Amino acid sequence: MPTASRPRRFAADRAARWGALALVVRPLYIGTEILVAAATIGGYDFLADTVSRLGEIGCSPDFCSPRHAWMNGSFVVFGVLLTGSAVWLARRLGPWAAGLLVIAGLSSIATGLTPQDQAGVAHAIAATPLFIAQPAALLVLAARVRGDHPHLSRLLFATGAITAAAAVGFVLAGEGDAGLLERLALWPVVIALSAFGVAELRSGPWTRWPTP
């Protein structure tokens, strides 16, 4: 039995390592936003304008996002990375955090498939779970890793609390601060989960076991 279980053990660890790597690279999403915004015509304000505006397909005399496909594609790609990492790291994340991150990842994918100016209602419905599931996942994960990684736990808890408050503020805010609050609800999550991924890469079983 130990011999039979060893390959499965290595396979599970390999999947978890890929999940951790997927979290580590997700901050590249922020760079995608910046690159897409740099190509807009008519001006784009990170403090006032929402992320979804970068994914608008149509153009008007006042605004156009020529790289809208990059933005919508990034919603899908980074959503796939989040969903995959949650599945591959399910044992380390725990069922609640993993489930919430799967929901968040699927929400991101659906958001990219429903551009705001083409399907406004569907876009709003698709994006909403992301703003709920991500902060909740961070808070749950903070409690889970508190014993093994106290500093990381505090980072995850603080990020979860801040992003939850920012998400509420984004819903209630007027147009003036919408972009700032939306990014405050999204960007820190990407960074905090990347930190979790780094911690997993440093402390995972693959750091102790030889590769078969």
Automatic annotation (TrEMBL):
Q: Name one Pfam family in it.
A: DUF998
Domain of life of the organism encoding this protein: Bacteria
User: Which key words tag this protein in UniProt?
Assistant: Membrane, Transmembrane, Transmembrane helix
Reply yes or no: does the keyword Transmembrane apply.
yes
Residue ranges annotated as transmembrane are 21-44, 70-89, 96-114, 120-143, 155-173, 185-201
Q: What is this protein called?
A: Hypothetical membrane protein
Q: Which organism is it from?
A: Aeromicrobium choanae
